[in-house]
Structure formats: C-alpha cells, structure tokens
Amino acid sequence: MRISTNTIYQSGTNQLMNLQSDLNKLSIQTATGKRVNSPADDPVAAARILELNTAKDQNANYMNARKTAETLLQTYEANLTSVTDTVQSIQSTLIAAGNGSYTDTERAKLANELQGNLDTLKGLANTKDSQGNYLYAGYASTTVPFDANYDFVANSSRTKLQIDVQSQLPVTFTGDQVFGTNGDNVFNTLQDMITLLKTPITDSTTQAAFSSGLGDSITKMQGSLNKVLDARSEIGSNLNLLDTLNTTGDSLDLQYDASISTLQDLDYAQALSDISKKTTILQAAQKAFVATSNISLFSLI
C-alpha cells in the first residue's frame, strides 16, 4: 500500500501536537498543583470534585450559622445571668419585708430598693445586642420591648437558624417569654409590691392585706425566676448541641478536604517524570519529523 507524503506529514504533525498538548497540560498541572484543572482533564473526577466542593461550602455555611447562634446565645446567657441575680436579690428583699418588727419607714426603704431593682430589670429587658437590635423584641428588633407602662409591645416570634441539614435552632428569646405577659409580668409584680410596701400598716386589716400581698408576690417572683431559669436551661442545652454539631462539622470538613485532595492533587514526582519523558519523546519526534519532511520522491529514486 502506498502512503502519500501528505499523509506522512499530517501524521507527524498530529503526533507533535499531541505531545505538545500533553506537555502543556503537565505544565499547567505543576503550576497549579492540581491534577484536574478542567472537566476535560478527568470528567468523572471533575464531577465528583464539584459535588464535594458544594457539600464543603454548605458545611461551611452551617458552621457560620452555628457561630452566629453561639454568639447570640452567649449574649442572652450573659444578660439572663444578670436578670437572675436581680430577681434573686428581689426575692431576698421580699423575704426581709416579712419581718414583723419592721416599721413603715423601714418597709418604705425596701420599696426604694425594689424600685431600683425594677429599673434594673427593665433596662435588662430593653437591652440591645452588638448590632443595635433589641434582644427581646422578636422580629420587631427595632422596637423597644417594654414601654413606660411595662407592657410588652414588641413581637413574640423567635428567630431560628439552620444549623445543619436537618435542624433549625431558636436563637432568640422574647420579652413575654422571659419576663411574662402584659398584666402578669415581673414588672407588674414589682410595682404591686412597691405600692404595698409604701402603704402604712395601721390595723389588722392593712396587716392582713400586706401579708397576703407579700405572699402572692413571693410566689409570683418565684414563677418569674423559673421562666428565666428555663430560658437559661434551654441556652445551655442548645450550646451543648452546637458543640456536638461543630465537632461533626469539623470532621466532615476534613473528610471533604481529604477526598478532594485524593481526586485533585497532583503527584509532583510523577508529573516531573512525565514531563522529562514526554520532552525526550517530543524532541526525538521533532527530529524524526524534520528528517521525514526532507525526504522527497527524488531522493528515493
């Protein structure tokens, strides 16, 4: 079978182009440190790498959401610790108010102490976070939760964050949840008690009214403390959950990195060996191609 000079030339050209393409690919790989730089390099591996990177990015989003959740919950915990201390101080004052030897003047002094506690509690209930949003205002984050009459005037909805594929976590608390509803909140209890302490005891009737009111206030204050402690208990549980999910998330991130590395990272030793080998082959092919190209029909006669 006779092979034309053009066919020989084209075959040689194709071989040189393929060898040069291989070297260019190896050059890119050594420059990037990646075996797969485009889907054409390895379609199956490229698809898997894309899938793993997508999962890794989603995992990072969940990790960021958990960091946000931790910050918010820690902010609430610090605030509620102060609320707890204040309520417990109020309880001590209420117990002291039951001292039968106290005079009206001494009870009035206790009323002043409770007024200070009331102002402190309202300040804590109307606290803003680092972003300038009211902690206990629900979705109405720019609305002062408790007004001048100690009524809750904000929103009762709690913000939730997606902290992993399956879980949403409530990361805020509302004023009515922690401090009570309008007409039956810790502020109303304190106001009633302050009024009671300022009322002189002049006879058995006013004494009975005082004793009854004091007992009622002590019971309600314990209920208020329980709400605060319930919120803090929830915070503790949620922080523990976040710790567990963070450990899992860190482990997943390492697994994704390892899988991506296996598919994508370049074996430098092998790549350098391939470059050396293909360079030698290319140089030999170029010499052979030049020699073949110089052969003409006349040199064969």
Structural overview:
There is one protein chain. Helix content is 71%, strand content 3%. The protein contains 8 helices and 4 strands; from the N terminus they run H-H-H-E-E-H-E-E-H-H-H-H. The strands form 2 sheets. The chain has a two-stranded antiparallel ribbon with strand order 1-2. The protein has a two-stranded antiparallel sheet with strand order 3-4. A hairpin with a 2-residue loop joins strand 3 (180-181) and strand 4.
Provide the spatial order of strands within the biggest beta sheet: 1-2
Can you identify the CATH class of the largest domain?
Answer: Mainly Alpha
- Domain count: 2
Helix and strand content put the structural class at mainly alpha
Strand content: under 5%
Task: Compute the separation of the termini in Å.
Answer: 18 Å
Mean pLDDT: 87
CATH superfamily of the largest domain: f41 fragment of flagellin, N-terminal domain
Largest sheet: 2 strands, antiparallel
Helix content: over 70%
Q: What is the number of strand segments?
A: 4
Number of helices in the DSSP assignment: 8
How much is the radius of gyration in Å?
A: 39 Å
Low-confidence runs: none
CATH fold field value of the largest domain: f41 fragment of flagellin, N-terminal domain
**What's the helix-strand series?**
HHHEEHEEHHHH
